[in-house]
Amino acid sequence: MKAKASVYITNQGITVNNKPFFSDIVFVDNELPFNKIYKQLDLNYPKYHKMDNLSKLGFLGVELLKREIDLSQYGEDRIAQIFQNSYSSLDTDIVHQKSINDKKMPSPAVFVYTLPNIVMGEIAIRNKLYGENLFTLVDKFSPQNWLELSNVQLALGKADAIMGGWIDIFENNFNLRLFLLDNSREGGLFEVK
Amino acid sequence: MERKVIYIGAEDILSSLGKTAAESYQNALTGVSGLKKHPIENFFTNKPLGIIENFRLLEDFTKVESMCIESARNSLSQVYDACFLDKWLIIISTTKGDIGYLEQNEIDKAKPTYLAQRVKGNLPLNSEVMVVSNACISGLLAIITAHDYIATGKYQHALVIGVDTVSKFTTSGFESFYALSEDPSSPFDKNRTGLSLGEAASCVVLSSKSNLFKEVPMVFVGGASSNDANHISGPSRTGEGLVRAINLALKSANVEQSQIDFISAHGTGTKYNDDMESIAFTRCNLQNTPVNSLKGYFGHTLGAAGVLELSISMQSMRNNMMLKTLGCVSPGTSEDINVLLNNKKAKLKTVLKTASGFGGCNAAVILKNNPN
User: Fold this and answer.
1) Are B229 and A152 an interchain contact pair (Cβ–Cβ within 8 Å)?
2) Rounded-to-integer distance, Cα A94 and Cα A100, Å
3) Within 10 Å of residue B339's Cβ, how many Cβ atoms?
4) In chain A, whose CA is at the least distance from the CA of B93?
5) Of these four, A30, B256, B311, B312, which has the most CB atoms within 10 Å of its CB?
6) Are residues B205 and B230 in the same domain?
């Protein structure tokens, strides 16, 4: 099964529907490019600045995806979000843990992001998506496993489209592979990999 | 396509109230709470917690791993072992897994997938393992996912293991939100002041074969999740996501509101959560249906909560007895709902279980008593 649209944001750069995107953004080691992408997208969404890096990554991915596909063609509760990763929310967990180790009062603004599914909440809020949510953890991205989970939801009629894929970040390593699949007969053009 | 009947049974609970589902249920029935205060240096807080005390670890395993393995073995002892050779799926539901490893900066071991491999390697099943980590709806979502996989024929049976322990990581986080109650939490009470945390491992088995189970199983008839699309930490003022999850679950179960005999709610004991649930139940026309929360017995067991609370509901169905909401004296929520203040005998044919969590997620599951 192929996706209608795909977005990759990795340490190597960005591709949208398999074409390089924002190639003038230089990805530097030890520096996350998210705020540069946000700026280039010319968005005005103050909530973005409060997000942790996992949520920023997913949020930006969906903003890029929307350049290729109109989400409003699906009902507000007919897009299911299914994401996977390996590091769960450990990228933010270590920030919370540090305040415990340092005997400081932890910050609730950090603690709320110590769950991997929060990124789906941020995407739901931004795009008014009331559909199903599922966050699973696996050692590495298995397109087959993700497609299987997606097909189960489509087959049971729980959604008309699935938005999600792989979203992982730990310190300076990040990897988003975002796809949109739907139950239309013609299918998509972009391989899930 | 004729719909497959999916059974659920073999429930087990390892909690502050007991070592089995029956023991935890019996203690709850007599009004015992597992919540009590502990020295502040142990868990960062001196607020009441539901801790499993004097727990004997399996050799070379952490507490989280040992709890999972022990509960899973208890659950599997309730199914016929000839089926162990069939196609199984193990789903672990957890919010934080073995987060204690983070104190020593052991990142790879703090990953819940590491926990999953450790647990799987010590169970007698020929199976794949996956982890669902979706805040406080993880347990119900893991059970729904297990159902959906079996319904589409990918697996024959699934073992769902819900687990979370009380750690400084979570207690300090909830303290930073001022969410922990000074006294054991009192869900739906007009004077409620917050939640109490607890720890547990709890298991259920789902299968397309009813003869897998030694005791008569229940039937999983419907389940769904929905997002509020409103706020990442605050419950929706309108209960939107929970209303949608309940309505979708009813629809998939082909059940009318009026057929629901009893609701096992999320009921954390925070002001906003319990108000939200009262609004959602009323919007679903369920305001007169008897409802309880089990958080006053076990505390909020996070990733285990959905599995544990559904397991207690299954015990309630087996015993035709609804448990009171321990800690609730005078109900007081935005909308008046029918909070159980005393244990009550009732023939329970159809039961609704709900959960809501950070990230705006909500889930609902409906079980029926096996007609056979």
Assistant:
1) no
2) 10
3) 23
4) A136
5) B311
6) no
